[in-house]
Write a structure and sequence with these properties.
The complex is a heterohexamer, with 3 copies of chain A (433 residues) and 3 copies of chain B (117 residues). Chain A is mainly α and 433 residues long. Helices cover 66% and strands 1% of the residues of chain A. Chain A is built from 17 helices and 1 strand. A 4-stranded antiparallel sheet of chain B has the order 2-5-1-6, covered by helices on one side. Chain B has a two-stranded antiparallel ribbon with strand order 3-4. Chain B is elongated. The mean pLDDT of chain B is 90. Classes of the chains: A mainly alpha (433), B alpha+beta (117). The complex binds adenosine-5'-diphosphate (3 copies).
Chain lengths: 433, 117, 117, 117, 433, 433
């Protein structure tokens, strides 16, 4: 039970927790998303996140991790760690936690990122098509972007900073969601009927659990309990609070009502914005970032439903945009006296901003076109969405054969033996022509 | 016999029940409905989606009574449900041909309010 | 006066409301019901328990109208609710003896659609 | 034609559906209601708040039938719903003037049970 | 990424987690409280906790932390740490965790304490007035009391012991709630109608999450993994269990029914009671405290609704009273052989009881009168409560323009462009005079 | 505040968290189970888990812990640690965490195990009888089995391996559930009516929280941050994912629908299967175990409702069976190069399989007959189940005097003073004969 010499117990203890916290974020996201849809699509929406837990964990262990984090070229890693080969207790170069734990931590990131994209296609995408999408996306898109900034890829080489995933997580999910919404197209009633969240308590609780998990997401991205982690952790408290305050103010100005769904959204936006920058900004600038990032996301969320773009749960606004703002903000306000790594433009290092800008150009492009191509490809193999009739029945019944809130009235027990009898009993009214 | 249907405000439901009780009306079935009438719509916002809500929560009473009991029942409903503001609701009276108590199978007057008599 | 009851698909409820609005029918109460008719059952599974669901969600409209308004109301219901597929629902018309506005206590025609006139 | 309304125990709802099915009654709409009748109140406590609950959950059936089918329907309801204990519920029969199938617009007998006759 | 020399990795790892756990308690409280109200006030109730996350985080970072924890006089701290000045990685004197983390941990305490008070005023207080209240209270009340016992204030000087917040958290929220209920007055239907919890599952889940978070609350108040923390942590398991057992018994004796809402309440009461005493009592006396504290809270909760005092969610009974009992209990049963600090009366040190009694006199007075004055002051600026009509509509629609459980029926989509058309469609029935 | 010399701060930090995580599992289980029952039994079902938190914590502190973990004979421990005597800060022999923390961690195991059994008897067992059952079972069954594998008992002596509770937790709860279902017998409507889960969101969220907690359950069973813990932790991510993938496939093959309730079940089954084996298998074999364990559980869950056995929430299938598979799997695939302890048959050590087989024979027998006897005994003292009439009213009202989702309509406020008046108002309709 002795750990390898260079493993630090305190760092490892924290990273175990951080990993569990990030894992929790995926069911929390399922809950958050499920609250947003109509009750007839509740389970399907939640299941898209559960599916990510299933599919992406396996694909990431098989090849995703290796493609992201083993040696390769500037674009993509190799297959040295495929099927967890040589992923054991000995820490990776320069780290103080077991390699296996580092893998588990990274896996939870890929899982939630893939799950996030579901927000763009809920209430109409077929579940089998989404399963296939998860599989391909988690191999072809996430690992590439993770490699760029964390696995020794070209952005990391250039010096682009991304503390906890502005590139592979936030911008990737946001711009992938945009592509997914375009390929899968709008729900049939979108823009014609009011499609309202069926349970705002789930949304608020989901947001609360997400924030809780995000302490592991950002606080764990220093891979230990060093200063960077402490800073990232504290900023994850401060930035979303600032976002909330600004969001409240905008809501109040707009129509004198602070909304609960808006507050839940603000928590997510604040957490997203600070994600890339968490370990690089002073607490004061972290709060500024939280405040500033509220604005574009707020107005995109206001504007988007007026368009034909049914990017249903606004992943682009909440993740893509806020992540982009966070990445750029580093370029301005990174402070070497806090992060020990690099200054931003405001502290005299304009080059950092250039490096950040590069990420902001390349990531959306790769995520968007990658996702677009994947979904178009899957569309050739199988239909991407349910029929109009199925859509109006609701995906819970159609795709999963279940209802979220069953009462049992009118439910006739079928046993395998009485299949025949049941069929007779269940015969519908003969339809008069 | 009559079937009296009343649509009232949810916050008056318990007052209506009490008023019916005092009027010796015992049997009653209630359900939640949503109504549209003279009340103002309220505007709600969910992220970027702004909607006008044209329905208000109401409670629907359904009461089978003997002919003699119809007016007392209506009086009790009016007493319990009235606030004087728009949205108080309506009472509808429909002819009732038969009423049957499931437990005993007994029919007509015996099955409706007043129960004993 | 008539009490018009309509059972329609939930996804048509808002269209029905709009059609009623255009027909100048204002007062209406709606509720969620589950219906059994000509639609196919759907099979659901919960762990090892497999069930046939014989009921479908519907929305029930209850509208008290003056005699003259009965046909326009039915037309509006048909217009708003029809999809042409099995399961569109039914309209029932029941005689209405009295209608009373709780707020004012005023009776009959004055209490039902059309409200003014 | 008649509109048959029945208030039954929730736990008998499926038995009622089955009994109706055997009586060849197909069209039916059901909803959840809460009823007050001869059953004892139950006392509930939420922290320091003690309340008497005077309503019990029931299920309401609404069935439009042709005149000939009225008695078989009532028999089926009685068969499916009766337990013999207080609280079994009531059946009400209301005259039905018109019935219209929304899908086709066809009227009266053709629209109610029995469907093909 | 190297931490300052005196930072201990294990202590820091645990305190990161403890901070996240306490942060989670605020959404958990929102859920717990939301379950208690009628469905039309669900979101408003939850939002009062979310508002604390927004407002108090900012106010605490700005001045609250400094007023509590920087040098000052016996009554209040100074402004040395205002706007987080000099709050960096170097631990505070005598500590082994980064200062920034200590700040974050303390912030989560102030947040939840402020949120707790909302329990007294739900279902009628206007949201803007509550926001302002949070701002003022979190600056003028909490930091003062925290300074008294933890920041070098007069109670701490005298030797009053308060492990995790009997003074600034539990008694403060409880007696502030009393004042708030008196100023804001009862709901219009209070005492006339049965106002029942709309979702007891939220209450139970909320209580479960609160208990989970409380391990960080009490277990973290030793600021590391030393003996005091271990003792506090274990006592946070044992005491609430004892409270539950006693509560079950009282319920059973009263009307032969063990209630679920009662059980959820017992969990909170047990956690509250052990809070001040967690690191000072032996496990056995911790269980005794849990058992004993059940009694007064139980009977106050039974008695209060028979009065005109609509202290709606019984913050005084659950927090004020149980916190007071916990503070006093230290005076009797503190045991130096377990806590290494001080004995109580039973172990021969009567002076400790006197010090504890002082806290029990001064804290309620300051909290009560402070809150009373603040709310009266706010009442001069704006109405504290909604109109009767709004109250009967429900605060979700009135204050937030949302419903917790929307179905979409009768919802007519408004777009900015068709405002005019919508207005026409929506015209209500002309009212016959 | 100095810890005893041999206490390791990193290990202790992690074990504090692991303990809190396992504690969270019990309310999570309450939520999970509550989602499965009809709404009229929601609170009763949840309360069975809350009751375990109350009763078992106390009984375990009093004697259970001692019977399991103090010196005794091969069958059962002694009373040296009864009432926590000598359970202080000094670690147990060979451990690096305070003894008190070790106790708290073990207590959370006994709590959840007892709570699990409730799944067999929900919707009909009387609450007082269940309370008594919890008390006796947590003293007479759990500690014995824990002693066998962890407290120096005969299985441990022989070399049987059980990392985190295949014997005392999973098989014990599963086979106890079988006995409980047989003694308490089926619900009156079982097999005649469709008894459906009233809230599948609670099921999914419950499963998510359980998985989250399980990282503490398995990851903490190495009692520190050593290699065994890291391996166990990572396997707790990988194995359930594999189970999910297989379960999806089986669902899809069966009737072309992947179910949400099935997915939640798969998460639990995967976590259970890896529990005994978590620290002994390589990540690859852990995934294999997760995949393999899905199959028997899947088919038992399919088959059981066709029988007369109303083991309502399938504890036997999900816990008993999967735990058994996990225990046996160790005998085949344990790998000393990963666990540093022992090899299984496949790696040349057939003896390990024999030792594992022994546990698989003895544990179910003891759990089954112990539970059977306890319940028969309780049945002599008091009725085990409610009357048919009460069962159809629902246990929330009957046993707890509450409804999970109260609306307040028809609720008449009773105050103690107006008891008389109320009685009059409430007089029911005179019943016509
Ligand atoms: N003609 C009608 N048919 C059915 N329900 C009606 C009718 N008119 C009103 N209602 C019901 O009564 C409620 C209150 O009616 P409204 O017209 O707003 O009140 P008031 O009678 O005070 O003007 C409505 O929300 C609706 O549920
Ligand atoms: N005779 C009836 N009485 C009451 N409700 C009925 C009746 N017939 C149909 N309905 C209601 O109408 C709904 C649609 O009826 P269905 O027969 O399926 O459609 P269609 O008229 O298109 O054949 C049913 O689900 C049920 O709610
Ligand atoms: N006069 C009535 N009008 C409307 N509903 C009634 C009436 N009488 C009884 N009910 C409904 O029937 C249910 C059972 O009635 P109750 O009088 O308790 O049973 P029983 O007929 O067995 O005496 C009530 O809960 C209520 O929903």
């Amino acid at each position: 039970m002795l750990a390898a010499a260079q493993v630090n117990a305190g760092d490892t203890a924290w990273m175990l927790v951080a990993t569990a916290l990030v894992l929790l974020m995926t069911p929390a996201l399922g809950l958050f998303y499920a609250g947003f849809v109509r009750s007839k699509n509740t389970l399907n929406t939640f299941m898209m996140s559960v599916a990510a837990l299933a599919v992406v964990t396996v694909s990431f262990a098989a090849v995703g991790y290796s493609l992201a984090f083993s040696d390769g070229n500037g674009f993509i890693g190799g297959l040295d760690h495929a099927f967890l080969r040589d992923v054991g207790f000995t820490p990776r170069e320069g780290m103080t936690i077991p390699h296996l734990l580092f893998f588990a931590y990274q896996a939870t990131f890929c899982i939630i990122t893939a799950a996030l994209i579901s927000g763009a296609v809920v209430e109409r995408m077929r579940f089998p098509a989404f399963l296939l999408f998860l599989l391909v996306w988690s191999v072809a898109v996430y690992p590439v972007l993770a490699h760029w900034v964390w696995g020794g890829g070209w952005l990391q080489e250039r010096g682009t900073l991304d503390f906890a995933g502005g590139v592979p997580v936030e911008m990737a999910s946001g711009f992938s969601a945009l592509a997914a919404a375009l390929v899968v197209r709008a729900r049939k009633d979108y823009g014609r009927q009011a499609l309202l969240p069926h349970n705002a308590v789930f949304i608020l609780l989901g947001a609360g659990l997400l924030w809780f998990g995000w302490f592991g997401f950002n606080g764990g991205s220093g891979f230990g309990v060093g200063n960077a982690s402490i800073l990232a952790f504290t900023n994850t408290l401060l930035a979303p609070a600032a976002t909330l305050v600004v969001w409240f103010t905008l809501d109040q100005l707009r129509d004198r009502k602070v909304t609960a769904v808006g507050a839940a959204t603000a928590i997510v936006v604040g957490c997203v914005a600070i994600t890339p920058a968490a370990g690089f900004l002073s607490p004061g600038f972290a709060m500024l970032l939280g405040a500033v990032a509220a604005v574009p996301s707020y107005f995109i969320i206001l504007w988007r439903p007026r368009t034909r773009l049914d990017e249903t749960l606004d992943v682009l606004a909440a993740h893509g945009t806020a992540g982009l703002v966070g990445i750029l903000f580093i370029g301005f306000f990174a402070q070497a006296s806090w992060n020990g790594v690099s200054d931003g433009l405001v502290f005299g290092n304009a080059g950092q901003l250039a490096d950040q800008a590069l990420a902001v150009l390349a990531t959306p492009a790769y995520a968007f076109f990658g996702t677009f191509a994947i979904l178009k490809g899957i569309g050739l193999l199988m239909p991407l969405r349910t029929s109009e009739h199925e859509e109006s029945l609701g995906l819970d019944v159609v795709e999963h054969g279940e209802e979220a809130y069953a009462t049992g009235e009118g439910a006739i027990l079928l046993t395998q033996e009485d299949g025949a009898r049941a069929a007779e009993v269940l015969q519908p009214v003969p339809v008069v022509p | 016999m009559k079937l009296v249907i009343a649509i009232v405000r949810p916050e008056r439901a318990n007052d209506v029940l009490a008023a019916l009780h005092h009027a010796d009306v015992r049997g009653v079935s209630i359900s939640r409905v949503q109504g549209h009438g003279g009340e103002l719509e309220r505007v709600e916002t969910y992220r970027g989606t702004t909607v006008a809500m044209s329905l208000n929560d109401k409670v629907r009473f359904e009461i089978a009574v003997s002919d003699d009991f119809c007016d007392p029942t209506i009086d009790a409903l009016l007493e319990g449900a009235r606030t004087g503001e728009v949205g108080d609701g309506k009472i509808f009276v429909v002819p009732l041909e038969r009423a049957i108590r499931i437990r005993t199978g007994e029919a007509d007057e015996a099955a409706v309010t007043p129960v004993a008599g």
